[in-house]
C-alpha cells in the first residue's frame, strides 16, 4: 500500500475494504500489509496493520522498482524512488510467482485528495491447482517498515471445475496417511 504522510487509519481501512469488495475477495483473510521502506513508520499504515492483526512489511525502493507492474507512475518514482509502491509491494509480499488480484486503487475521502493506494496480490495457481507462492514463499528481504500489500492464502479459482486450494490442505485424492508399527 502506498500512503501520504498523515493518512488516517480510517482512510487506509476503508480503502482496503473497498478494494477487497471490488475484487470479490472479502471472504479471504488479509495476511499482511506491505509498503516501501520510506513509509514503514507511517502511523496510518501501522495502525491499520495493528487493527487488522497482520504484520506491516516493508521493502527497499530498489527492490520495488525491480518488480514489473501494469501501472508504473513517474510521479511516484520521483517521490519515493520506485515507479510502484502498492502493486510492487503486494507482489513481493505475496511471494515468488504471485499475481495481482486487484491493481492499484486510490482512496476516496470526501472533500480532500486521496492519501492512500492499495493493490491486492495472492499466490499464483498452476493449471493443476497447485500454489506457486503464499505465506510460506513470502519474500525474505524485509525491513523494519512496510507499505500496504494484501495477500491471501486462498488463490482465485481458475477455469471451470477447478477447486480452490487452501494452504495446508491435503492434495486432492490423497487419503489419510497410515502408521507403520515395528517391533
From TrEMBL:
Pfam families: CbiG_C (PF01890). Residues 130-183 are annotated as: Disordered. It comes from the Bacteria. InterPro entries: CobE/GbiG_C, CobE/GbiG_C_sf, Precorrin_MeTrfase. Transmembrane segments: none annotated. Gene3D superfamilies: CobE/GbiG C-terminal domain. GO terms for biological process: cobalamin biosynthetic process. Residues 1-121 form the CobE/GbiG C-terminal domain. This is CobE/GbiG C-terminal domain-containing protein. It comes from Streptomyces tubercidicus.
